[in-house]
Specification:
The chain is α+β, with helices and mostly antiparallel strands. It contains two helices and five strands, in the order ααβββββ. It folds into two domains: about 40 residues; about 45 residues, no CATH class. Helices cover about 35% and strands about 25% of the residues. InterPro entries: DUF2149.
Length: about 110
């Protein structure tokens, strides 16, 4: 009768390698999901030679622009100040009722 109990205990023991294989399967799924996310990113480093422009916080003082031209990546950040720089007013533009624009120089 004691032999019967020992056989039952041996059958119920889990193989430690089986749990390791399950963990490896989970990691493979996580890696596959991360690769899909990377490939769907507009600034994908593995994408072809195309131009992509990403604008963060458009129209706000902390607006940023990322421009990818081929393998080159440029980052522009707004200072938050309006009208910064040198120059003068050159004229006035009016929008007509039909949608056309008229420029009147000063």
């Amino acid at each position: 009768m004691s032999r019967l109990k020992l056989n039952i205990l041996e059958d119920e023991d889990d193989d430690p390698i089986a749990s390791t294989v399950n963990i490896i399967d989970v990691f493979l799924v996580v890696i596959a999901v991360l690769l899909v996310i990377l490939m769907s990113n507009p600034i994908n480093p593995f994408a072809t030679e195309e131009e992509v422009i990403v604008i963060k916080n458009p129209g706000k003082p902390n607006m940023e622009m990322l421009i990818k031209e081929g393998t080159e990546l440029k980052h522009y950040q707004s200072t938050g100040e309006v009208g910064e720089g040198q120059g003068s007013k050159a004229g006035i533009t009016y929008r007509m009722e039909d949608g056309s624009m008229i420029y009147v120089p000063e």
